[in-house]
Sequence to fold (251 residues):
Amino acid sequence: MLLALQSVDVELGGVSILRDISFEVAQGHTFGIVGPNGAGKTTILNVVSGVVPTVRGDVVFKGETLTGISPHKVRGHGIGRSLQSTQYFTHLSVLDLVSLGQLKNSVWGALRFSDHRRTRFAQTSRTRAMEALELLDLGAYAHRPLGELSSAVQKLADMARALAVGGELVLLDEPTSGVSASERGAIADALSEMRRLGRTIVLIDHDPGFVVSNCDRLMAMNFGEVLRVGDPGEVMASAEVKRSYLGQSAE
Ligand SMILES: Nc1ncnc2c1ncn2[C@@H]1O[C@H](COP(=O)(O)OP(=O)(O)OP(=O)(O)O)[C@@H](O)[C@H]1O
Ligand SMILES: [Mg+2]
Fold:
């Protein structure tokens, strides 16, 4: 097992958001997460990436407990993530977006850097960003502003940002949302490339066909709880999962 969540509870603003979330992700697998809007899918990625604290339970990565450590330390373990929306970054070039993923998000961390170290860090992060872009066949877009590109290319660029940081584990938040059916093949190709490179993937997605064909295992959730974990086809076909999506009886 590469990653495990063990009985994780999350509360935000005094409201219970996740309850008793447990699952395991095997090394090299693509683990899917599905569930209706507001189910808590993004919050799970926020917990793993250290952005949101748990009130109970643990995140275990390669046998080490990561619970409560800062986001940049999580990234230091080779865990990268994409965002559900890149709407705030449309003015950035693709290369800047991908380089940005490697910045320390602590002001103190940045201030401690001398000018020389800052320059060296910028060069290293751009080199690594360019490598990730080339791996996903996005080199030609490096200097284009994100906002000029199709949603598929924007999503792929953010996947490259996650890949540049995630040497071990890549967490992807709805890479196909807003992407036309005809362009989803490019997202699937990027997932295959990540797998070929040996990455383990956690993939949130709403498209049942896409998760069934791209995931080794699937977890369905609703109202902050796990409904079912197992074979993707079986999970999607189960009556309780269909009901959660329809909000009514699946019969
Ligand atoms: N910072 C926050 N403070 C309070 N409540 C929050 C916060 N972030 C998320 N929530 C609530 O937690 C619940 C789960 O949100 P989350 O974003 O994890 O859902 P999701 O499954 O990713 O949904 P979607 O499919 O719409 O992206 C929602 O009810 C949401 O309103
Ligand atoms: Mg979400």
Notes: The chain is about 40% helix and 25% strand. The CA atoms of residues 73 and 244 lie 36 Å apart.
